[in-house]
Amino acid sequence: MNILSLFVLVPLLMMLFLFASKNMQQIRTVMVTGASALLVLAATLTIMFIQQRAISTDEMLFVDSIVWYAPLNIAYAVGVDGISVVMIVLSSIIVFTGVFSSWNMNMAKEYFLWYCLLSIGVFGFFISIDLFTMFLFYEVALIPMYLLIGLWGTGRKEYSAMKLTLMLMGGSAFLMIGIIGIYYFSGHATMNLLEIANNLHIPIEAQRWLFPATFLGFGVLGALFPFHTWSPDGHASAPTAVSMLHAGVLMKLGGYGCFRVAMYLMPEAAHELGWIFLILTGISVVYGALGAVVQTDLKYINAYSSVSHCGLVLFAILMMNQTAMTGAIMQMLSHGLMTALFFALIGLIYGRTHTRDIREMGGLMKIMPFAAMCYVIAGLASLGLPGLSGFVAEMTIFVGAFQHADLFHRILTIAACCSIVITAVYILRTVGKILYGPVQDQHHIGLPDAKWYEKVSTVGLIVAIAAIGMYPFGVSEIISNSLLPIIEKLTI
Amino acid sequence: MEYSLLILITPFVLFLLLGLTGHKMKPNVAGIIGTTGMALAAILSYTIAFQYFFGVGKVDGVFQQIIPINFEWLRFTDNLHIDLGILLDPISVMMLVVITTVSLMVHLYSLAYMHGEKGFQRYYAFLSLFSFSMLGLVVATNIFQMYIFWELVGVSSYSLIGFYYTKPSAVAASKKAFIVTRFADLGFLVGILLLSFYTKTFDFATLTADNASLVVNSTAGASFLGLSVAAWATALIFMGGAGKSAMFPLHIWLPDAMEGPTPVSALIHAATMVVAGVYLVARLFPVYFFSAPEVLTMIAYIGVFTALFAAVIAITQTDIKRVLAFSTISQIALMMAALGVSGFGGHDGLGYMASMFHLFTHAFFKALLFLGAGSVIHAVHSNDMRDMGRLHKYMPISSITFFIACLAIAGIPPFSGFFSKDEILVAAFHHDKVIFYAILVSAGLTAFYMFRLYFNIFWGKEKTYTEHHKPHESPWLMTFPLVFLAILSCTTGLFDFSEFISPDKMPFATHIDWTIAGMAIAVAVIGITVATILYAKGSDKPAQMAKSLGRFYTATLNKFYLDEVWMFITQSVIFKMICEPIRWFDRNVIDGSMNGLAWVTQKSSSAIKGLQSGQVQFYAWVFVAGSIVIAILVLFCKV
Lengths: 492, 639
Prior knowledge:
The complex is a heterodimer.
Chain A: H1 3-20, H2 24-55, E1 61-69, E2 74-80, H3 82-101, H4 108-127, H5 131-152, H6 157-185, H7 193-199, H8 204-221, H9 230-237, H10 240-265, H11 267-293, H12 298-318, H13 322-353, H14 364-367, H15 369-382, H16 389-402, H17 407-417, H18 419-434, H19 452-470, H20 473-491
Antiparallel strand pairs in A: 1-2
Helix pairs in contact in A: 1-2, 1-4, 2-3, 3-4, 3-10, 3-13, 3-19, 4-5, 4-10, 5-6, 5-10, 6-8, 6-9, 8-10, 8-11, 9-12, 10-12, 10-13, 11-12, 11-17, 11-18, 12-13, 12-18, 13-15, 13-16, 13-19, 13-20, 15-18, 15-19, 16-19
Chain B: H1 5-21, H2 27-56, E1 58-59, E2 62-63, E3 66-75, E4 81-88, H3 90-113, H4 120-138, H5 143-161, H6 168-199, H7 204-218, E5 223-224, E6 227-228, H8 229-244, H9 253-256, H10 262-271, H11 276-283, H12 285-291, H13 293-316, H14 320-340, H15 350-380, H16 396-410, H17 416-431, H18 433-458, H19 476-491, H20 514-535, H21 541-549, H22 551-557, H23 562-608, H24 616-638
Antiparallel strand pairs in B: 1-2, 3-4, 5-6
Helix pairs in contact in B: 1-2, 1-4, 2-3, 2-4, 3-4, 3-10, 3-15, 3-19, 4-5, 5-6, 6-8, 7-12, 8-11, 8-13, 10-15, 11-14, 13-14, 13-18, 14-15, 14-17, 14-18, 15-16, 15-17, 15-19, 16-18, 16-19, 17-18, 17-20, 18-20
């Protein structure tokens, strides 16, 4: 059996065991075992991938295809390159830490069932190389979100859940059109990404409207301006682990999709129309950061910060050179880890203080030093401190984007660079307000610091962030090698 | 000389050790571990310096760049990659000595000064982190490595300024320091991008080789908005340096940074980190000199203006640490100005040499001043000179060492400051008379405000000290660094610096120009005399003078309202006029249109939902009416 299918099978098995489990103890055992299994699986995959890569010149490895519905040439086709491997590793880390961040959920069984379904969607999306299967898993990942936010969320949860789902479904509609269009205009012979990209050609007239449709469809999930407003409300209402998964992994589906479907299959249109989206993403980067400066809710701050950081991902993808694109993938990885860390910590703080308003908090460093230290580290990663992952990703993007031959692109890059200052402003403002200074609310004195399971989650993420930040060479190498075939197509 | 790597590894390991396990250690143990590690690094630096300057460094009379270690850390493209490595050349070796020496003294001093503070282990962890970053910065082999460590020193500085994190003013100061320097770093980053876009390299050695011919050739003919690209790139890189080295108008963070513990101010905000900007320009000096001489002129004028500006402000401040902070700004600006007036090759490189010389001597006497101030603050529990007076009889060692440092900074021979400042003056004299006289004036002002400070603390009028708060001399752990640094302040001026450091790495001979030296001494003596008359005995004259100056006095007291200007820009312009409207726009326009879309969908569906009522009569009625309409239409169309 193909190792890739295990990533879908393990969460499926977890769901079965969850049905059978009777108490909290068993539920936790199932989840921890399953999530650890996924983590081990991801590590194994990475090692196997590196070994195979050394001996194989194929674009994708571990390729497998089972025909599923022959009349429309739909197949369950899987395969990975370095980029998908990185994304799978990211997902497994976040799924793992997310379990520990939702240690004490009410209705835990139902919650974790949806949680597993979401994981199936996420992993399935990253391993698929068939357009239809990809779309299917994409939808599988989106639907549980509605219930997870609507049932376990806080605040205006019904409104937020509805808004998030509808906006993303709106994106899906574009995507559906795009995928069907790609299928027909490439000669309705196959849905397989690799075959379309390498053997078939989509006429440029069709590309002109298919590219915007798919880019926009995925872009909504990547919080592309002006379709980002689901993100602040959605994150604010979602429970901790769902925010982690959503910002950490789900938003990456958008970036990955833009890259894998829109750019990869339609390079000509990308060259022709890329500038429109480049301006939009450039706006995202600066606008999101400026928007974060005046927010007062921790989750809103982080949501806008995500708009800015994810904007940078799409921005770099559109720069269409190897360095910038490597940076984009690294930024996905890095942003995934650090927002997950942020949301885990915000959940931790909110669970104790029952507020997320930064004006109502202060001096938490004294009360819960461990959590506060972790928050500082997350903040430093976010503002791009060398030695943590954010710096590596951002610098790769900036240097790569600035190598663009066109002056307009270089000027946009300088504009995007400005975000590093704005990021420092909102991060330090938040950190200074909630962690330092005198204790704001006397009721906060004596609140407990992080519990062991919360420590597992935060320390795990910090280790990953620091590892990438200190030793970026390996990750960057895997990604940039996998980009070569795509770059070749883009340079035609 | 691979063992030079140990100089970097030691503080980094200490940081990890103290940062991760420090809270389980006894405070003193953590302090002693940190100090021992620093001592090791210092010893290694001295060996390196000795080996370099008197052994392997010089080949055929020229100092070499030695790169014992260099490895690729992150690859962008085939040409552009960040390497981490160690570059040994005269200025980096000199910096190693300066940093480890001052850092070791501060480590020792802090054992007593910070004794009993909460977070003592954290303090030592951050000191180690800072030392690591600063050492990594000076030995950088390429500009991106420098940027990496540049950011790291920024963060260590942020953490140490905000060490007393429950104090709102300390938190605000740390935030301000970080954001102002971050803003400057944006310039640095864009400058790097611009420079590397044309030259396709980050490497210092490649950039500066052959009179920076690579930069000159690759950027030839390219210009943007009327300025050559080389000028843009170097000016933007200088912006980064100006932020860290507190040049006008980016100096506003440094006085506030005095909220940190005093030993930290001595190490970071006087001796080492704040000279990083000067070091950066010196490192890229051939690039500035050959590809963008106009930027070098700009640097000279910014430097000399900042020097005067800060000296004027220092005169009226009453917080002793702030006086020293403005004095630091002023002195660093002199180093910048010296680089700006420097030439290249042979005796023309005097300005460059003088700048590094002054950096060297300044590091010791300014660290001494800060540590002395710390000793006083420790005794009196106040930063304000109005709470001090006649302290000489209570703390003679602090007083005498402070006096030596004052003489050094005022430029009285044979103390170290005299020699380095004299070289700066000579270099300026041969380059630009305006700059020369401006530096002379600032030297006079320096002598005046330093002795105003000295007399106000140690002489003047006796203040009433409460019985159990009688000032007393500090313990030996604090006085030992004072004495040690005082000895350095007396002796470091006697080095023949031009034998070791010059822009083209070829030693040249210098001699003291006694006409210029005479003028400098005269100006310093005048400054000191005026200060003695006004402050030595304590009189009402200063207050009267302040009154007669009126507006000007208030303006200097308020640092020419620059903080307010920046406050206005950030609060009123950026927050109120950009961010708030964006928030509104996002909520009401963008999100509003999404909600509007939902609203329209909802309304229109509820408007037409009545059509599916299930009433057969209604359906029949619609059916008949529809048929009639169609029939009419058909008939009508036929006609």
